[in-house]
Amino acid sequence: MKKYTGLDDITDLQELIAEARALKANPYAYEHLGKRKRLVMLFFNSSLRTRLSTEKAASNLGMDVTVMNFNSDAWKLEFEDGTVMNADTSEHVKEAAKVISQYGDVIAVRAFPTLTDKAKDESEYVISNFVKYATVPVVNMESATAHPLQALADAITITELSEKKKPKVVLSWAPHPKALPHAVANSFIGMMQKMDVELTVTHPKGYELSDATMKDTPVVYDQDEALKDADFVYVKNWSNYEDYGKVLATVDSHSSWTITDEKLGDAKFMHCLPVRRNVIVADEVLDGEQSVVIEQANNRTFSAQVVLKKILENLN
Amino acid sequence: MKKYTGLDDITDLQELIAEARALKANPYAYEHLGKRKRLVMLFFNSSLRTRLSTEKAASNLGMDVTVMNFNSDAWKLEFEDGTVMNADTSEHVKEAAKVISQYGDVIAVRAFPTLTDKAKDESEYVISNFVKYATVPVVNMESATAHPLQALADAITITELSEKKKPKVVLSWAPHPKALPHAVANSFIGMMQKMDVELTVTHPKGYELSDATMKDTPVVYDQDEALKDADFVYVKNWSNYEDYGKVLATVDSHSSWTITDEKLGDAKFMHCLPVRRNVIVADEVLDGEQSVVIEQANNRTFSAQVVLKKILENLN
Amino acid sequence: MKKYTGLDDITDLQELIAEARALKANPYAYEHLGKRKRLVMLFFNSSLRTRLSTEKAASNLGMDVTVMNFNSDAWKLEFEDGTVMNADTSEHVKEAAKVISQYGDVIAVRAFPTLTDKAKDESEYVISNFVKYATVPVVNMESATAHPLQALADAITITELSEKKKPKVVLSWAPHPKALPHAVANSFIGMMQKMDVELTVTHPKGYELSDATMKDTPVVYDQDEALKDADFVYVKNWSNYEDYGKVLATVDSHSSWTITDEKLGDAKFMHCLPVRRNVIVADEVLDGEQSVVIEQANNRTFSAQVVLKKILENLN
């Protein structure tokens, strides 16, 4: 693997999942692979799971890790070509990416979308510039439109826990007071499209995701109908895509979308976390036995570890 | 040891101090004990000594360490049960504690009190929720009402430096411009009550600590009388406990409480640091030979190291 | 080497450069030298290259590294002697430096100048107080008036890339919208004065550097004349020294000083980074083959590594 910025970087998903599960069973089997190799993790946004799981994954492989909160620790970056840098940006991503490549063997980047400028977000200007100018492999720790490490952890989780050959997986929108990115939904849908599952998406009218994401995945606007006989219910809020980055109505007006035990039925409950209790999902679900969110979070380690292993194996 | 959140987690203090001193003499004797074990240190507040000493302690034991400044790096946590999380908190401590337990083998937490809500502070809502929901051992790096790693370092220091079988130890309040927590005073008193020392507490009337802390420890309001023939003088400010979190008068009006060479007599001067010079204590004392504050700070490493060693030994 | 706070700490520059180049060829040759030794890096200001390169350098030598952003993570420091600490500073550098010396074997400090108080800046009150009170060696990661790790990396770069016995090196001022320190210019000039190069400095009238820095180095106010037949052109902005910390005119009024391909001629282009594109230097130069800024940044690792090696070898 030369990089991991999106699902297109996966050549054989089943093999990747199998290898991740093997690493989970034996996390230190490759702890010499990363010796004298350094992962530089750059955060333009907050992180809990992504940071801790990726750091642990790298460490399990024997890598050294540097964590840099770019906004507070370093210099404000310029991403535009040809700019006269006479204002508030101090360093161009061209230099930053090349320079960081001198100090790290792999660069991981987290950079959320603006949610105000759709074209800019869809250009993935942060991570795509790091890929363009870095001379070492780049890993996406959630970008403007994708969260492929999360989606791989989700695929591992569903593979581990599924009791059927072809489980029914439902992605349900749920209300949230703030405007949230589409990254998790995009990557989850993309990942499920690669797996042998029956995928349904449900959300209120007006919250349609991009055609590039949806492809031929069916949308069922009636949440109850969508959830019927589900094996896995993945819940996630996203802001409007058409009226880009907007939240169309209050949480209260969408409170019927909150996932409850009754809605969940016999399905397993999934969420990438952090999750707002009693807004996205009722306490009873999160505290119940059908919630697999903690195991999902655990699988973030092995999702990151298998990706880093593949990248390390490909270094010289 | 299953956790170290308060002095109650100590079963045999003398043995713990002896073992800490043995680690001080031979810090790397157990550097394989923590191999492939990770300490996740969560800071909700500033730290210098606690962070550096605990990091060194873990490293001496061969542990990996992750430092996370929770407020700036991660998501704002919710601590209330049953809340509809429709406002500014993004993640519930239930998930956070369980999730972090997937990535770390020991979790250490620093979270200061509000000093405005006594009941909330005394419930120790941050650290007690981490203990409740984490599935790995929790270490207190100073909580709302306790600082047991500091108190253990203090006990080590007094044990090392005492020239008497039963030294006289005085805890003296001193003035400070800001409202400070009771944690250090509480834990120091609790620790001294477990040791074979003659303990006296002195402070201006109105600065009484809680009955739960004081038990039968005598208070002498006349500082000069209290300090007479002291072997160790531990100085610390705390805000009002009765009129919770208040500073009753200006520093100047309490300037007679500042510790000077004359007040100190032949005693050793102790303070947990950071200390405000010429407010808490005169330069002459801190720069003189009777000050043991740097050695106290040094003992923070071995206080943390013995606690982590005991916890690691108890991990199956 | 007992410390590295300025160029005066170098006893044999040629030997130091040779050893840095040997480390570059074989970075792990001394990876047992730093075993069980800890570098504590204290940042009072932002950093990208300095942090990552120094961290990698220490790691190459087998050291453990702690990074602390002092302003956000720790307590506000007092640097004045005899102060009554009754205001916003919580800890005196006397205690901080002594305490950190308990936890680290080497302390590295970055602290920029005020650019408002020349006497204070020239006293190097931050780093000189760390040197005075720390009981372990101190390394300067850029102080008010000096950046000796950068200058050493520059010396390594020029030594590696020079095709002449005595190359012509020109330090050229360039415009910048903000008031910048003199540290890089001071240390670069001081370093070149120690090397067998022909050094010329060029800047607009009024931007004279201190006599202590310049010694007998010639200033040529006409940039074109200064740049003629240069082998290396080092470009850097600095604010006014006489009218201390001021920017005398707009960037536009100095736009003729921006380095272009035409001005550069056949010389190699050097800059310490971060650099403002099309203000300090045109895109064509940075993106061209004569720019060596990325290799300069790479040499920061070996500049730091040779300094840490020398310091570690001197720790009994």
Automatic annotation (TrEMBL), chains A, B, C:
Q: Does the keyword Heme apply?
A: no
Sorted keywords for this record are: Amino-acid biosynthesis, Arginine biosynthesis, Transferase
**InterPro entries with a match to the protein in the record:** ArgF'-like, Asp/Orn_carbamoyltranf_P-bd, Asp/Orn_carbamoylTrfase, Asp/Orn_carbamoylTrfase_sf, Asp_carbamoyltransf_Asp/Orn-bd
Taxonomic superkingdom? Bacteria
GO biological processes: citrulline biosynthetic process; L-arginine biosynthetic process via ornithine
Q: What is this protein called?
A: N-succinylornithine carbamoyltransferase
Q: What GO annotations for molecular function exist for this entry?
A: amino acid binding; ornithine carbamoyltransferase activity
- Binding-site list for carbamoyl phosphate: S47, L48, R49, T50, W75, R110, H147, P148, L149, Q150, C272, L273, R300
Pathway terms, separated by semicolons = Amino-acid biosynthesis; L-arginine biosynthesis
Enzyme class of the recorded protein, top EC level: transferase
- Annotated organism of origin: Leeuwenhoekiella blandensis (strain CECT 7118 / CCUG 51940 / KCTC 22103 / MED217)
Which protein family is it in?
Belongs to the aspartate/ornithine carbamoyltransferase superfamily. SOTCase family.
Q: Which residues form the Aspartate/ornithine carbamoyltransferase Asp/Orn-binding domain?
A: 184-308
- Domain Aspartate/ornithine carbamoyltransferase carbamoyl-P binding: start-end pairs: 7-160
EC numbers on record:
2.1.3.11
Which residues does the annotation say bind N(2)-succinyl-L-ornithine? Answer: E142, H176, K236, R276
Subunit structure, interactors included: Homotrimer.
Catalysed conversion reaction: N(2)-succinyl-L-ornithine + carbamoyl phosphate = N(2)-succinyl-L-citrulline + phosphate + H(+)
Q: Which NCBIfam families match?
A: PRK04523.1 (NF003384)
Its job: Catalyzes the transfer of the carbamoyl group from carbamoyl phosphate to the delta-amino group of N(2)-succinyl-L-ornithine to produce N(2)-succinyl-L-citrulline. Is essential for arginine biosynthesis.
Does this entry carry the keyword Electron transport? no
